[in-house]
Inverse folding.
């Protein structure tokens, strides 16, 4: 995907605790033996993936100097997070009891990146500067959504934002994730993992309004426990190629999940769910 030198240099340049740096190094080793997927693979069939030239894009090794980004406004938000080109630039954790909004480097325990399906799965582990971690304590119902805005600003950047949501047993939370960009050519590989504890309730909404020169290759994984319920909604309107793979795993007895998607494109846009 990217050259071995780029992978190694970026993984070494990004900061973080020892466990996070080790995760990056291990993923970089695995990534070295992988190639870009092809439209000949069933899960990429009918996609323009063969037209992607990763040499056009470069992951940033340091936070951008221009971090002026406006978070998506949602009335009554319980907490907000803003990233620019993959780097967290603003965290307002709010004051809701039982809700913690932080980054992986400040969390109490290592955050597992999850199983990588392909080279992009390994790349998001290598190049994500500091995954966002949202935790809701057991038995707590959070009023108002947690709103995360990802903003692409730099020409030619490759961004790899990660979000991890952990909803404790019998808790409830709503998460809104918004992807925006300036009019730039860029690549974004967002990864969102949601653990819905037993009897918990999680509502997730993604709004994708990226510019027409952006490639999005996203993943959403929800693990739903016993008697828990997950609702995942996606609205896709932007990007030249906007892809989101969703895995909703009903792993507990009585688990349920509803997946919804709406899209509105024009011209030669491809919106791929």
């Amino acid at each position: 995907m990217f050259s071995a030198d780029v992978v190694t240099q970026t993984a070494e340049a990004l900061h973080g605790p020892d466990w996070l740096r080790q995760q990056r190094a291990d993923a970089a080793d695995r990534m070295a033996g992988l190639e870009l997927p092809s439209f000949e693979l069933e899960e990429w069939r009918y996609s323009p993936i063969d037209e992607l030239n990763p040499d056009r894009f470069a992951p940033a090794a340091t936070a951008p100097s221009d971090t002026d980004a406006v978070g998506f406004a949602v009335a009554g938000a319980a907490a907000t997070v803003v990233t620019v080109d993959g780097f967290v630039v603003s965290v307002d954790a709010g004051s809701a009891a039982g809700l913690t909004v932080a980054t992986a480097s400040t969390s109490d325990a290592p955050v597992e990146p999850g199983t990588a399906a392909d080279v992009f799965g390994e790349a998001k582990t290598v190049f994500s500067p500091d995954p966002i971690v949202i935790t809701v304590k057991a038995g707590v119902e959070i009023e108002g959504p947690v709103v995360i805005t990802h903003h692409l600003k730099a020409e030619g950047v490759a961004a790899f934002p990660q979000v991890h949501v952990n909803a404790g047993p019998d808790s409830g939370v709503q998460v809104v994730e918004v992807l925006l960009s300036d009019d730039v050519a860029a690549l974004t590989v967002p990864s969102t993992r949601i653990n819905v504890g037993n009897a918990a309730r999680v509502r997730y909404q993604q709004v994708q309004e990226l510019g027409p020169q952006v490639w999005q290759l996203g993943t959403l994984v929800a693990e739903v426990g016993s008697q828990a319920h997950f609702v995942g909604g996606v609205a896709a309107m932007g990007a030249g190629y906007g892809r989101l793979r969703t895995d909703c795993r009903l792993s507990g007895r009585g688990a349920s999940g509803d997946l919804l998607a709406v899209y509105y494109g024009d011209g030669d846009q491809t919106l791929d769910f």
Helices lie at 4-13, 18-31, 119-127. The mean pLDDT is 91. The radius of gyration is 18 Å.
